[in-house]
Amino acid sequence: MTLSIYRASVPLYIRGFSQLAGIMDKAEANAAARKIDLSVLVNSRLAPDMYPFSGQIQRASDTAKGTIARLAGVEIPSFPDNEVTFEDLRGRIAKTVDFIKSVPESAFDGADTREITLKLRDRDMTLSGADYLLDRQLPNFYFHITTAYAILRHNGVDIGKRDYLGV
User: How far is the C-alpha of 97 from the C-alpha of 102, rounded, in Å?
Assistant: First the structure.
């Protein structure tokens, strides 16, 4: 059996967002029990030069929707980065997952060899769809999901590896 680009992307992004939603549930319960305003978590960051929790969710969303759109050859939906509450962030996650689910599996036919050109700050980079997904986009997505997890954990939310992995 060969592993398709669809199978290596869509289910992983959907699962990652599902696990993130579960971690956010625990964060909300933890904040309520400790009488902490959720805006503290939304705006918390690990280092001054890193995105806050909200930014980690936004970048994970941008990565997932951009990847799926480029691999499937469809337009990337544009979402403004205006989320300021957990409810807003949940909405961003839901919109992203809805978009991912809306792209038919057949749109990924030939995506492994499709050329993807990225506009970087100082140059253009062209990769095959497979290299784009496996070498850049999945690691980037998991970086932001992991950092979101780490921000919550750093702020005392009682979550662990099982919450991250969903087992």
Answer: 8
Quick one: which of 66, 31, 33, 34 has its CA closest to 42? Answer: 31
State how far the Cα of 165 lies from the Cα of 167, in Å rounded to an integer: 6
Polymer length in residues for the chain:
167
Asked whether the predicted pLDDT for residue 1 surpasses 80, the reply is no
Cα separation, 26 vs 163, in Å, equals 9
Tell me the C-alpha distance between 132 and 129, whole Å.
5
All residues at 6 or more sequence positions from 84 whose CB lies less than 8 Å from its CB, including other chains: 39, 42, 54
> pLDDT tens across 23-37, in order?
999 999 999 999 999
In this structure, are residues 126 and 117 in contact, taking their beta carbons and an 8 Å threshold?
yes
Q: How far is CA 107 from the centre of its chain?
A: 21
Q: Which pair of tokens denotes residue 108?
A: 């990924």
- For the chain, list the domains and their CATH numbers: 10-165 (1.20.120.450)
Instruction: Report the 10 Å Cβ neighbour count for 143.
Output: 14
